Amino acid sequence: MPRKLLLTSFQTWLPHQTSNSSDDLLENISQHESSSHSLSYLRQLPVNILQASNRVIAKIENLRPDSILLCGMAEKRTQLTVESCATCGDALLKTSVDLNQLMAGLAATEISDDAGKFVCEGLYYQVLKHLQGRNFKMNCIFVHVPLLTPDNSDSVVADFNVLLNKLALLGFRF
Hints:
By secondary structure, this protein is of the alpha/beta class. Helices cover 36% and strands 26% of the residues. The chain has one domain (4-169): Aminopeptidase. It has helices at 21-31, 49-63, 99-103, 119-133, 153-169, and strands at 4-10, 38-45, 67-73, 80-83, 85-88, 91-94, 109-112, 139-145. A hairpin with a 2-residue loop joins strand 5 (85-88) and strand 6 (91-94). The protein starts with a strand and ends in a 5-residue tail after the last helix.
């Protein structure tokens, strides 16, 4: 039975940005979709914590996905990074996903403990808080996507596809 996954991306937020690499990555994934899972996209979220959180939480309530991959752009990073936690003031929430297991064997991805103190972290925190408050047993991670270049694009897309498939299968009983 195919697993349901929700994938999100953001709009740009600075004048020099022609696109958001998180959205570019999801566009690539959607065009070359070879997954046996059911992928739903919520792309180009507004760069506003409240608006983005409300849209994602409404989609989660409607879709009830098995897993959620929140994605955002990190211009200064050079590879995919999976965020271990999100903060809001003094409060800290961690993903329930075993990131070491999830990322085993990935060459172009690392774990980060700093989701950036911007809208990415705000969205991640609000979604984790919602999932915990509703006692939903959905896997949820936030992935920061570097600027995609000819040098890194293939490895970023490959690692993201592996992450997507591994996340879909976490906790799945055959």
